[in-house]
Amino acid sequence: VEIEDLSPEGRIALTEEIVAAGAAVRAVAQVLGLAVDKLNVGALGNVTPQLHVHVLGRRDGDPAWPGPVWGHSAGVSYAEDVREAAIAAARGALGL
User: What is the pLDDT of residues 40-90, one digit of tens each?
Assistant: First the structure.
């Protein structure tokens, strides 16, 4: 449920996974033509009481900047070709 519940090895693994997820977020942003000025990492889980970590790319001028993104705006669908390019970029960054 909490990061503190992980073994020391698990915490190290989680940190490495966060770094990898950050690289994927930056790769997707590049495909979308967006800057990532700051990566936000949060282990929120009030509604879903399990350990899960959010890795978000933020930029000055994004719709929620500088406040939190949670519940700020409706989701935006991408065209299929853009979505596929973003997925490919994320997979490439993750070595998949």
Answer: 999 987 887 889 999 999 999 899 999 989 889 998 899 999 999 999 999
Compute how many other C-beta atoms are within 10 angstroms of the C-beta atom of residue 62. Answer: 18
pLDDT in tens, 54-64: 999 999 989 99
Q: Which helix (H) or strand (E) holds 64?
A: none
Residue 6 reports pLDDT greater than 90: yes
How is residue 48 written in tokens?
Answer: 């879903």
Contacts 24+ apart (CB under 8 A), 40-49: 40/69, 43/2, 43/3, 44/70, 45/1, 49/1
Cross-strand partners of 39: 57
Full-model pTM: 0.89
The answer to whether 32 touches 94, Cβ cutoff 8 Å, is: no
CA dist 95 and 87 (Å) reads 12
